[in-house]
C-alpha cells in the first residue's frame, strides 16, 4: 500500500454514481436500506434453515448455504458504503479503501461465479446418476469444490489488485459509479493502464467465461439426459430441480456480463446492471430458491414459527 501512496497524488475519490437532490437521495437511502436488510435477513434465514434441519444436509443444500453466505459478503462489500454516501455531502472514499473494495468485489463475485458452476455440475450428477449421487458428491469433494472456488477467486483478485496498485492517480477524482470497480478507475489514471486492463481481460476470459462455459456444457448434458426420460412426470421433476439455479445464473451472469462488456461511460444502464448483480441479485437468491422449493418453504415457515 505504501507504493500506492507514493504513486498517487489524489488521496481520495468521489463516488458520484447516485448523486441527486436531497429528497431523491433520502428516498434512495430508504430503498437500498430496505433491500440490504431483506438481503441480510433472507440469506441468514436460509443459512439457519439449511444448517439446522438435518433433511437439508445434502450436497445441493450445502452449496445453497455457501451461496447465501457469499451473497451476504458480496452485498456487504458495496451497500454499506453506498448507504453512507447517500447521507453524506462529500461521498468520498480513500484510494486505499477503493482498492480494498475492488479486491473484495472481485473476490466475492469471482467465488460466486465458481460456485454457480459447481452447482451446475451438482445438478448434472443428480439428474444423470441419481443412484450414485451420494457416492460421487461426497463430503470431501463438496468441501474441496467450495474451497477451490474461494481459492481461485481470491488468487484472481490478488493478481488483478497487485497490477492495479501500480496505477497513478494525479488529478481526476470523480468516479461516476456508486462503488469502486477496476473499469471505473481506468479513466482516472494518469499512467498506462494497459497492463491492468490486459490482466483484467485475461482473468475475465479464463475465470468468468470459463465458469460460464462449464455451466453451459453442464446444462447441455442435463437437457440431453432429461430428454431421454420417458415419463412426463420424471421430466417435469428433473426440470424443476434446475429451475432455481438456472434463474440465479441468468440474474448473475446476465447483468454482470452486460456491465463489463459495456464501455465505461457512467450511463444509467451501466449503473442499473451494476445494481442488479451487486445489490438486487443477493436479495433475490433466497426468494428464488425458497419460492420454487416446497421443502425450503415449509422449513422456513417452521423456523419462523419457532423463533417468532
Automatic annotation (TrEMBL):
GO terms for molecular function: G protein-coupled receptor activity; olfactory receptor activity. It is a multi-pass membrane protein. SUPFAM superfamilies: Family A G protein-coupled receptor-like. The keyword ATP-binding does not apply. Belongs to the G-protein coupled receptor 1 family. The chain crosses the membrane at residues 26-49, 99-121, 141-165, 205-227, 239-261, 273-291. It comes from the Eukaryota. One of its GO terms (cellular component) is plasma membrane. Keywords: Cell membrane, G-protein coupled receptor, Membrane, Olfaction, Receptor, Sensory transduction, Transducer, Transmembrane, Transmembrane helix. InterPro entries: GPCR_Rhodpsn, GPCR_Rhodpsn_7TM, Olfact_rcpt. It is found in: Cell membrane. CDD domains: 7tmA_OR8S1-like. This is Olfactory receptor. Residues 42-289 form the G-protein coupled receptors family 1 profile domain.
Amino acid at each position: 500500500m505504501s507504493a500506492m501512496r507514493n504513486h498517487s497524488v489524489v488521496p481520495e475519490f468521489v463516488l458520484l454514481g447516485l448523486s441527486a437532490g436531497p429528497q431523491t437521495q433520502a428516498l434512495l437511502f430508504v430503498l437500498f436500506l430496505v433491500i440490504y436488510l431483506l438481503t441480510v435477513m433472507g440469506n441468514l434465514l436460509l443459512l439457519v434453515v439449511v444448517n439446522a434441519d438435518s433433511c437439508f444436509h445434502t450436497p445441493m443444500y450445502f452449496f445453497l448455504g455457501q451461496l447465501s453466505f457469499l451473497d451476504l459478503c458480496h452485498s456487504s462489500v458495496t451497500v454499506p458504503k453506498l448507504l453512507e454516501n447517500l447521507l453524506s455531502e462529500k461521498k468520498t472514499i480513500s484510494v486505499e479503501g477503493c482498492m480494498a473494495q475492488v479486491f473484495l468485489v472481485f473476490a466475492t463475485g469471482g467465488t460466486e461465479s465458481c460456485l454457480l458452476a459447481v452447482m451446475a455440475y451438482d445438478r448434472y450428477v443428480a439428474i444423470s446418476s441419481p443412484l450414485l449421487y451420494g457416492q460421487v458428491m461426497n463430503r470431501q469433494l463438496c468441501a474441496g469444490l467450495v474451497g477451490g472456488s474461494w481459492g481461485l477467486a481470491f488468487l484472481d483478485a490478488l493478481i488483478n489488485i497487485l497490477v492495479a496498485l501500480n496505477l497513478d492517480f494525479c488529478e481526476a477524482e470523480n468516479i461516476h459509479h456508486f462503488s469502486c470497480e477496476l473499469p471505473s478507475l481506468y479513466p482516472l489514471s494518469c499512467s498506462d493502464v494497459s497492463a491492468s486492463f490486459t490482466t483484467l481481460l485475461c482473468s475475465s476470459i479464463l475465470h468468468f467465461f470459463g465458469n460460464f462455459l462449464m455451466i453451459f456444457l453442464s446444462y447441455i448434458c442435463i437437457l440431453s439426459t432429461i430428454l431421454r426420460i420417458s415419463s412426463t412426470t420424471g421430466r417435469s421433476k428433473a426440470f424443476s430441480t434446475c429451475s432455481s439455479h438456472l434463474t440465479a445464473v441468468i440474474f448473475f451472469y446476465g447483468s454482470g456480463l452486460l456491465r463489463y462488456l459495456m464501455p465505461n461511460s457512467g450511463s444509467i444502464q451501466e449503473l442499473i446492471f451494476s445494481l442488479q448483480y451487486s445489490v438486487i441479485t443477493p436479495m433475490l437468491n433466497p426468494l428464488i430458491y425458497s419460492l420454487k422449493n416446497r421443502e425450503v418453504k415449509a422449513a422456513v415457515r417452521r423456523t419462523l414459527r419457532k423463533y417468532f
